[in-house]
Amino acid sequence: MKKNLALIIAIITISSLAGFGVVQAKGQDNDNFKGKAHSQKINIETPKDFNENFPMASREDETALKNESNLKTVITKGSNMIDMRLNALNRAKTSINKSKLSANQKTSLIAMIDENINGLTNLKTKLVAETDLALAKADLSSMFTDYRIYGVFMPKLNALRIIDMNSNNLDKIQTTTFTNYQTKIDALKASNGDAALIAKMEAGLAKAKTDASKTSSLISSTMIKAQNLKPADYPTQSKTILKDIKNNLKTIHNDFKLIRTDLGIKGRVNVMTK
């Protein structure tokens, strides 16, 4: 029972916007459970498997390109920038396919990626065929205004992925952990167990269910906030929205710790998430 609880409770640690990685720490003993706890630091900006070291050309200033007077240069730079974004999207797609998300969650996220891949692919085809400088610049400007891959889409995609992970973890807690915990309470009652302990466990479970319900609502509202993020929000509004999402994820992380405490689970015991 306790080992099952340990494997199900997930604590996702949100890092600063600068870092992403996996760390390991020793977990405290939970009666018969011993071992290592794994916590994943997650960044809603650019996780390593989504974005490697892109050349500086990928970060060309939009204004500099607007001032470019050579058609061939605009087409060449624009094509390279689109290719870099396509590569980033395809890496993200591979990463999501390898993740532990549900089939439906993967399908939803990959559909978003494919929509951007198709749009950028068509944009590149149009760009390389241009014979007019103004039209080529307009095509290139569309890469920023209509897609905004680095500034908006990639952070949005990763935020949705993290939210899905949180949702899955909470679902396991509500459907499995709580059920098993109630079973243990019922068994104690049937064997005329310690009344004080039973009362304490019942109170803890009730509190955990209340906290889980609150967490569920926050996960839902955060999901909507991330889903509604769009390229036109860049830069001011998108930064505010992403900051709000990050703060909500921190709160959700703390909620998982609170639920663990409600149920009397000691130590930083959780599963590895991907």
Topology:
Layout: H1 2-8, E1 13-14, E2 21-26, E3 36-42, H2 62-66, H3 71-98, H4 103-128, H5 133-147, H6 149-190, H7 195-227, H8 236-262
Parallel strand pairs: 1-3
Antiparallel strand pairs: 2-3
Helix pairs in contact: 3-4, 3-5, 3-6, 4-5, 4-6, 6-7, 6-8, 7-8
Estimate the global geometry from the Cα principal axes: elongated
Question: In this structure, how is the largest beta sheet organized?
Answer: 3 strands, mixed
Structural class: mainly alpha
Strand content: 5-15%
Low-confidence stretches: 1-60, 267-274
Counting H and I runs of at least 4 residues, what is the number of helices? 8
Query: How is the largest sheet built, in terms of strand order?
Result: 1-3-2
H/E element sequence: HEEEHHHHHHH
Average predicted local confidence, pLDDT: 79
Tell me the quaternary state.
single chain
Rg measurement, Å: 24 Å
Number of strands: 3
Q: First CA to last CA: what distance?
A: 25 Å
